[in-house]
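Hi L.,

As promised, DUF2809 domain-containing protein:
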Amino acid sequence: MNKTRITYFLIFLSIIFLGILSRKISFIPLWIGDFLYAVMIYFLARIFLPFKNAFTIALLSVLICYGIEFLQLYQGEWMIELRKTLFGKYVLGQGFLWEDILAYTFGIIVAFCIEKITLNYINQKSV
């Protein structure tokens, strides 16, 4: 595992921690968890595709998040049972909400912008 992937993995773990913490603190709005979920997906994609351009990662992340959200419209018995597990609850969610789509979009845009700013700063510093 190279240095880039390790960095993305550490960010990924930090986002998971913050996301779980956001669900435990009552005064934090629920959309923050969805926002962080999208940021987590962005960096998960980065772990597997560290050298793809940021726009490609953002597009892939949007497709994954939207796909998972729209999958919540499917109410097959086996899917309902899967959603009752800890994995299903955190990964697949409980029910479709348009607000989640908005939070995912915002989260990925923020992750994309932060990465672009950070990479530009690092590239300027190394020149």
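The mean pLDDT is 90.

Thanks again for sending the construct details.

K.
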